[in-house]
Design brief:
Layout lengths: L1 H27 L11 E3 L3 E3 L3 H17 L24 H11 L3 E10 L2 E10 L7 E8 L4 H14 L14 H4 L8 E13 L10 E5 L2 E4 L3 E13 L4 E14 L4 E20 L9 E20 L6 E11 L11 E11 L1
Helix pairs in contact: 2-4
Length: about 350
């Protein structure tokens, strides 16, 4: 029994440590770019019912978004009079290949903006001169002029990452039609379900192996931060020990804006903990004796986790925290109550 308890505790510590190293690696890793060394030219987009100013601004936004993501841009301001524009703009691969060679580019971005009523349909293609077919093609139907900035960010994200389309959004590039009927990308809030285990350390919690952890936290999430509260609806337990959450407040910094992001943070709470242990018989006392103590006290948590499906109307959480209870439980064994909590679940 003692060996299995020690193994469980060591396993919890190792899993928690490895997971934290993984989070730190992801948080510090620079974004990957598949096109960061390819000289790229953005040709004037063909306009059909869209003003020249809107077309020019859209092209400039796309150039800027590509540069931010490490794609080198060949400027064409001094040759604007030569390049096809307006309704005669370049929106097919043959034309893109010709002008790409003329401008000394290895990669050419081309396309069109077409107005249909109040909506603007955006079509974008990217051709690498060393290849026969465009490697990127996409169309955004039904956007407004005000949504063009997000469209161009979305296109730039895909081109820089080397993806063949813009199907993968980030929280900065979800367009208006995708936000309906739930506008949740700027911020979101809602209740979630978490389940997992709390692995005690240092013979705490009466020397038990592990506690089952269940909670219903309420979360508020913005672009870079999340705040989570659990009121009454949190419990870690087994046959011997109960750690009941009266109130928890947890805050974290989010690293990343894609569908997968990591976070690191900490929090405080008030918990009611019932700790119990059974003392074995001794020569002086030929019978087993139970000791127990219940305390309502302050707690602290430090940890982090991973968010999946961040741009959707639900999320999957993987969370690892070191949980510490500010009580020694001298009436039981004096080993206190602390451990590593590993949970997973979903949030709205």
């Amino acid at each position: 029994m003692d060996g299995s308890r020690a193994f469980a505790k060591r396993s919890g510590i190792l899993v928690g440590g490895a997971f934290f190293l993984f989070l730190l690696f992801l948080a510090g890793a620079p974004p990957c770019s598949a096109s960061d060394s390819t000289p790229t030219v953005v040709l004037p987009l063909r306009s059909l019912g869209v003003s020249d100013t809107t077309v020019s601004v859209a092209g400039n936004l796309l150039e800027g978004a590509l540069e931010i993501r490490g794609v080198p841009i060949i400027r064409t301001r001094d040759r604007q009079g030569e390049l096809p524009s307006g309704s005669a703009g370049c929106d097919e691969p043959g034309c893109a290949r010709h002008w790409g060679a003329q401008l000394g580019a290895e990669q050419v971005v081309y396309g069109s903006l077409s107005r249909l009523g109040e909506r603007i349909i955006t079509r974008i293609g990217v051709l690498r001169l060393a290849e026969n077919e465009p490697f990127y093609r996409d169309q955004f139907p039904g956007t407004s002029e005000g949504d063009l900035e997000r469209v161009m960010i979305r296109v730039a994200e895909a081109i820089a990452a080397g993806r063949p389309n813009s199907g993968q959004a980030t929280i900065e590039s979800v367009i208006e039609p995708e936000e309906r009927p739930v506008r949740l990308r700027a911020s979101r809030r809602g209740i979630g379900v978490r389940a997992g285990f709390l692995f005690p350390t240092g013979d705490s919690y009466g020397g038990t192996d592990r506690l089952t952890s269940l909670s219903l936290p309420y979360k508020y999430e913005s672009r870079n931060y999340l705040v989570e509260t659990t009121t009454v609806l949190g419990l870690a337990f087994n046959d011997e020990v109960v750690d009941w959450t009266i109130f928890d407040l947890y805050g974290a910094r989010i690293f990343g804006v894609g569908d997968m992001a990591v976070y690191l943070g900490g929090g405080v709470g008030i918990h009611s903990v019932h700790d119990r242990t059974e003392l074995p018989p001794t020569e002086e006392r030929p019978y087993a004796m139970e000791r127990s103590q219940t305390a309502t006290t302050l707690t602290a948590d430090l940890g982090g986790g991973a968010l999946l499906f961040r741009t959707y109307d639900f999320q999957i959480f993987l969370d690892v925290r070191y949980h510490y209870v500010f009580e020694d439980f001298d009436e039981v064994d004096g080993n206190g109550a602390q451990g590593i909590r590993v949970t997973f679940g979903t949030h709205r």
